[in-house]
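Hi P.,

Sorry for the delay on this. The queue was packed all week, but I finally got your sequence through. Input first:
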Amino acid sequence: MTQTTKVSPEIQPQKRPKVTEQPIQCWAHSQTGKRCTAQVTSREGEPIPIPYCERHLNSGDGALKVVHHPFFGKALVARYDLPAKYRMAYWGKRGRCSTCDVEDRAISYYPPNKITGSNIDPKIPGGRTLKRHNYNGVLNPGGTGDVIQYAACPGPNEKQNMRSTFQYFGLRNGDLGGLEFVTLVPVPKNTQLLHWYGSGWWEERGIKRADVGTKRYPAPLRDAPVKKKRRTEVDDGGTLAKVDIKELTKSFDVEWARRHEQSDQDQKIA
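Then the structure:
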């Protein structure tokens, strides 16, 4: 009997919507790789809505999968091969920031221009809206269908394969908001999606940074591994190999891990 091999669907990167292109097509794909055909319109009068239809706001993009991690709680992986420049949206309810010991999945919110829908302002040095001048609370994914909140931070021997673009969705003082993420390289099926939380995230929480890749759900590795006495590795049975246990006594759950580069500093200022 001939055994057939499942071939990953060919996924095309989505385009970033423009304010003149309304309604916009939902960014999400089905679990079999078909692009959602639903059209998304403004929900609160925002120039560009979070680019997911109501169904995928609740269920998440089918191209992504939340899985159990043997050591860090939950992780986000590619359900099938994803191309570089694949776009995803983190989203949540806008509100005040709680301390990180209470809620640590939220990210700072910087609403886009209410006319252009862009966070790029050519009149400002550097070209993008200055965070200090535009902070508008945080986006909290708790109780929503957002799945990007489960994307982990790469460990010392790993590197990110996705990043935020500083393109936000929503309206100042609105109920909902979102932030665009994009893959930096092709992401093979079952590979973890990782992005950098920021250099101060770990120290501020007293957490020792560790590698997150496993045999079943690998993580992209750095070209030149960091020199360490022992490298942290986790197998799919949940046991640790080649690891100094004392260095991992303060473990964390990636479900908490939500942070944009300077969010903690901005929240203190706000």
